[in-house]
Every structure is written in structure tokens, then in C-alpha cells.
Amino acid sequence: MSIQIFILSKLMEDNNYPYKLKKQLSEPIPLDQLGGLTESKLYYHFDSLAKQGLIETVKIIKEEHRPDKQVFAITEKGREELPKKIYKLFENAKAISDMVVGLESIKYVDRERVVEILEKKIKNIKAHWEQISHLEKQIQIDEEHKKFAEFVSGYVSTRTEHTIYWLEELIKRIKQGDI
Known about the structure:
By secondary structure, the chain is mainly alpha-helical. The protein has eight helices and two strands. The chain has helices spanning 2-13, 18-26, 31-34, 39-51, 76-92, 100-104, 111-138, 143-176; strands spanning 55-61, 69-74. α1 (2-13) runs antiparallel to α5 (76-92) and α7 packs antiparallel against α8. The longest helix is centred in the last third of the chain and has 34 residues, at 143-176. The two termini are 21 Å apart. The model has no long low-confidence stretch (mean pLDDT 88). Residues 7-82 form the Transcription regulator PadR N-terminal domain. This is PadR family transcriptional regulator.
């Protein structure tokens, strides 16, 4: 989904073609390589978006001794669907790293709604942590497994605190307009 959001967001700015977008993704930081985005995956998502009626071919550039370049534009339906896809990305994200493309495209959605989604995530994480904490107190752990249980508990506790901290930081920065 994030690749499709990236494509639609770029087409909101200007008409474009797949190879040019891939090149933009790789400079100056090779985000395409970091994300495992190949040209074939990018073309697949362009094709998928076209089949959904979210983008359309507006021009074909013919060059001698080179394949034709299809230039795409976002459709009205694509403009309507982009915010829905961005909200869904935030709702489904398991970590902030899953939200990067949505954060990059935040100008196309209501920031307050994004904040509400993130606040709900924090609330759910805290509720889940509370539930787990109560279980930990009820379980009897024998000496053989005590050190392992302490390790796992420490890891989960630290990771949960870390996640909450960074979600709260993200919310703060969105509210301040820094993101």
C-alpha cells in the first residue's frame, strides 16, 4: 500500500512515469534499495492503480531505440482515494517505520485525524500493556524459568515504553507542524 501512496502523492504534484519516480526514490538516499523496491514492483503498482481507475495514461513519449514511456496522471477518483489509503496506512501500521510514506504525504490528509489515529494506538498499547502486566503478577514462575521471564519482561517493557515515547513525540511534532 505504501508504494501506491507514494505514487499517488507524486502524481498529485505532477504527471510522471515509473522510471523517473524510481530514480527520484534512489537519490540522494537509495530508498528503493532499502525498501526492496524493484522496477518491476513499481510497474506492477502503476498497473494496479490504473486498473483501479486511480491513475491514467495521459501521454506516451516515443524515443528512438528506447521503449515508450507512459506518462501518468492521477484521476479524480485517485484524489479521493489517496487520503483513505493514507488513513488506512496509519491505522494498520505496527511501527513508526511503517508510517514513513504516510508522514511524507501528510499534507493530503487532516492532521487532526492522524493525531486521533495515533492517540488511539497509544491508548491500545497502554491497555494491552496493562493487561499483560496483570497477567505477569498472577503467573507463578519456577526458579528454572525466572531469569528468562525477567529478560522477556524487561525487553517487552522497554520496547513498549520506547514505542509510546516515539508515538507521543510524533504526535507532538505533527501538532507543531514540524511533520
